[in-house]
Predict the structure.
Amino acid sequence: MSGRPQIPMVEVVSLIRQRELSAGEFVLDLFQRIDQFDSQIQAWVRLDRDRARASAAELDARAARNEFLPLHGVPFGVKDIIDVAGLPTGAGFPPYHDRIATSDAAIVARLKALGAIPLGKTHTTQFAFSDPAPTANPYDLTRTPGGSSSGSGAAVGARMVPLALGTQTAGSVLRPAAYCGAVGFKPTFNWFSRDGVLPLAWSLDHLGLITQHAADAALVYHALMDDRVSTAAWAGVPRIAVLEDFLERTEPEVAAHLVAVQDRLIASGAEVTTIHLPLDLDLLLAVHHLIMQVEVAAVHAEQVARMRDSYGPAIPADVDVGQLIPAVSDQKARRLRGALGCTIEALFDRYDALLLPTASNVAPPKALGSTGDRTFQAPWSLLGTPAISLPTGSSAGGLPIGSQLIGRRGADGALLSLAIWAESALGLIEPPSLA
Amino acid sequence: MQFEPSKDSDEIAQVLRGSAERRYGAERAMALESRLQNTARWMARIAAAPVEFAADSPDHSGLDGDRR
């Protein structure tokens, strides 16, 4: 089999532009890799082979005329709560398995217009909540890939595709990326349109990107933002604050890894300071969890009333409890969110980014029935700040460990530039050995 | 139903449990027990947190003005 699925997306685009690789060849390579390994990993709900091949042929014809698009020939996977015209948006919910989308979600339409090629739909936990998908972790098939963007994380981690779309309401882009050895990026809240994406909790839902490299995420982000946001190389000394509050809640091996990451960043020229959050982390988490529970209840209550038996256990239970929460508690939580956001915002007057482990642990065993710990990602979904997870190392057992950088709201381009700098300072982990 | 900031999570859990039993029946309420306790802890933490009387309304928390 060709080694091309391992090539960074930035290089793929360059090779296609130089006509050293065709979109058709690359798509074929990826389908071969999916055919070889997806029976073990189950990252994909369904593939859209014919249309992907047709799109690739069309792009190759344009390339022959010397017409290139910014993401010319970049294949991507789409989490199965995001609409792709002509395919079901199944959401891991049996009654939706034949619910065919009549148009593309805004982000899918935009990526297609930029020259990217959807290969198919990737598995999600049910409605992007917590009842697990069938997907396995490509680094260890007995482990969870994380969730809720389980298939997107596993597909990119397994080098089946260089880009996949995910969504994050608590930690559902960054955590699966970290558990699967990929890069996970979520922009500032609402910077990617959510039109055509099934909601879970309106004021928390973010669309995000899962890629193999930080530069790949920057390339896609830059294209999606119409070049309005600079993702130039980082200039100057990065000022990074390590958040001690999270290290205190981290499993020892992951905490030791973050200390090593910190040392490597200092050795590469960063100014790294360890700080405590100027707020109560438990309050931050309580505000996130309560708002999410209320909004999940509001989104799903009517459908749960009609179709309770079709759901897994998690959403109906959260709907039941969410409906008991007094409005005054919900409103207080939302007022606190504003105040907490201002407190975090002030940190960015002194630091370019905040650093913490992406998750408190490595991917837990699938048998536990959980997609992992959302605690380290949820605060940034609550506050709408941009966040990126980099695969910065591996555990003694060979499982990926991710480190997470948080940027100032609206400073997504700067965060991506810093992430590219950090990735070059920290190096990459080996892809999984699939047999 | 209102909770004073001084009420701790056990008291809030008791109120939530009572509401769940009335609304869903005893069996379904029992199955919700761990979730009820978690939610009560969050509510207690939120109730105890001070917020400026004149602080922004929830509609001005900063999250709503960013649509691109």
